[in-house]
Amino acid sequence: MNPAPPSHLFRKKKEHRRGITYSMLLCGPSGTGKTTFANNLLESSIFPHRYEQTEAYDISPKIRITSPTKVVSFNSSNGIPSYMAPFDPARAKWEPGVTITSTAVEIGTGQPSADAEYEDEEEIILFNLVNTHGIGENIDDSLCFDEVTLYLEQQFDTVLAEETRIKRNPRFEDTRVHIALYFIEPTGHGLREMDVEFMKRISRYTNVLPIISRADSFTKEELNEFRQKINSDLEKYHVPVYKFEVDPEDDDIETIEENQALANLQPFAIICSDTKDEEGRYVREYPWGTVIINDSKTSDLHILKSVLFGSHLQEFKDTTQNLLYENYRAEKLSTVSEQEASGSGTNASAARQSAAPSLSNFASLIRTGQIKSSQSLAIGSEAPSTPETKSSARKPSSRNPSQDSDEKLPRQDANESGSGSESPERSKLRNISETVPYVLRHERILARQQKLEKLEAQSAKELQMRIQELERKAHDLKQREKLLRQQQLEGSNLSFDSSSASVSYVQNHIKKEDTYTDLASIASNRN
Ligand SMILES: Nc1nc2c(ncn2[C@@H]2O[C@H](COP(=O)(O)OP(=O)(O)OP(=O)(O)O)[C@@H](O)[C@H]2O)c(=O)[nH]1
């Protein structure tokens, strides 16, 4: 009889338990209720409000926090992530820049798992919530746009790098954002330039749903008007937000009706709250009455939740994978391939034959400046006709991409890939797998370098201003010193005056010394 397998094998299987990965981004101007919405969405009090230092409390039994909130990216002119900093009036004039945080939770759906291996267990959603802080609070908010766009792009790059790796990481986590909710301030005036620009920028990497926040600010009529204004602005400025469209040929009658109803409601107008009533329902209490935020008569929150976690979850994931990511991937892989073909001059086909990229030809491209941040890969002129490309037309499953991509690319072991008899296709794959992660990493380093340079330039500017200020003070002191000397010489004042003058002279002198010491220490810190 075979001995029983060791118990740790079972444990490992448990650790690898998979659920539906799903990632959401909350963005929009500060104070529009993103944090409150995040708490309401998970029916818990997990996320503290700005300047609050409270720990998560009142967590729904359906939720398990797997990775507490952490800063994943930030950009600010003073080099400090503004998020989570206690309120400090002295820093009120500091621009907060932008901070991006991420929190991972497991949500029990109450449904049996779709995975046959775990059919006796509950299906879970591995939910990653990304929140943004500081948007709309800077004189120039373009750094927020750049940072958030860069974050989204990096998540695509990570998947692209993983897909092209020969040896896959079985624990790879897909952090691509499937849906972004853009919170519009309840101004009643339609979209602002910032809203348009921001939604346009991020819509390249994720599905965007505009949301009217704090909808209790409006009467019914005002809300309808505001909706119309927003819709006409979205149309006018060609903002590619997610639309609930129907296909009468493919969709069943139920889907058509549902999508039409949702399309009429767009943009969803929500009311959120931190307060619960005695029955455990989230409510907003006003002097004139109480609003239950899940009541569909007053707020679209309930409908939005069922769209996000029910009817359209898979749709958002599919669009991200099949449309947005595939476009990005094709563009990324083809841009440099085109460039290489044209850059190699007369012998373009020979260049294509010798294929492909290696670390050395990549390095030479970098040196000659042929690769820019939006162009990264030197491969043959056509996008690789790997099984991956072919399979991209298939409807993706809800499994994570490491699993999906296992099917897409044939597995190669290291020895095989290193042999001299490999087919051109294999050789190309090997070269891609060698180069893509390298190029992407390099791009990230370049982006980080640029960010550091920007910060350095900013602090050099501030330092320069301080030096000028100190020099001005030193000059003033010198003038005063001169004046005092003159007064002493003229002997116009009595001894009391002159002694007090010399006291203040000594004080000034000490101050001046301090000033010079300040200057010297700044200069040495800088060096
Ligand atoms: N009237 C009203 N107030 C709301 C609503 N939702 C949230 N608030 C309040 O708005 C304020 C800001 O809400 P937050 O959720 O902290 O807003 P935020 O967008 O996360 O703000 P930042 O962290 O600064 O980006 C809080 O006082 C909330 O209680 C709403 O639907 N209606």
Q: How do you describe this structure in short?
A:
Its main location: other. This is ZYBA0S04-01332g1_1. This protein is of the alpha/beta class.
Written description of the protein model:
- With 527 residues, this protein is of the alpha/beta class.
- Among the domains are: 15-311, P-loop containing nucleotide triphosphate hydrolases (Rossmann fold), CATH 3.40.50; 469-526.
- It has helices spanning 7-15, 34-41, 142-163, 193-202, 220-236, 253-265, 301-311, 313-343, 348-353, 359-367, 387-391, 401-408, 414-418, 424-490, 495-526, and strands at residues 20-27, 63-75, 98-112, 122-133, 179-184, 207-212, 268-269, 283-286, 289-292.
- Residues 30-36, 49-50, 133, 214, 216, 271-272, 274 line the site of guanosine-5'-triphosphate (GTP).
Shape: globular
Q: Which parts are unreliable, with pLDDT below 50 for 5 consecutive residues or more?
A: 5-16, 344-420
Bound molecules: guanosine-5'-triphosphate
CATH topology type of one domain: Rossmann fold
Write down the Rg.
30 Å
**What share of residues are in beta strands?**
5-15%
Query: Would you list the SSEs in sequence order as H and E?
Result: HEHEEEHEHEHHEEEHHHHHHHHH
What is the CATH superfamily label of one domain?
P-loop containing nucleotide triphosphate hydrolases
Q: What's the oligomerization state?
A: single chain
Helix/sheet category: alpha/beta
CATH architectural grouping of one domain: 3-Layer(aba) Sandwich
Helix content: 40-55%
Distance, first to last CA: 73 Å
Count of runs of 4 or more consecutive helical residues: 15
Please report the total strand number as a whole number.
Answer: 9
Mean pLDDT: 74
Adjacency order of strands in the biggest sheet: 2-3-4-1-5-6-7
Give the C-level CATH assignment of one domain: Alpha Beta
How would a crystallographer describe the biggest sheet? Answer: 7 strands, mixed
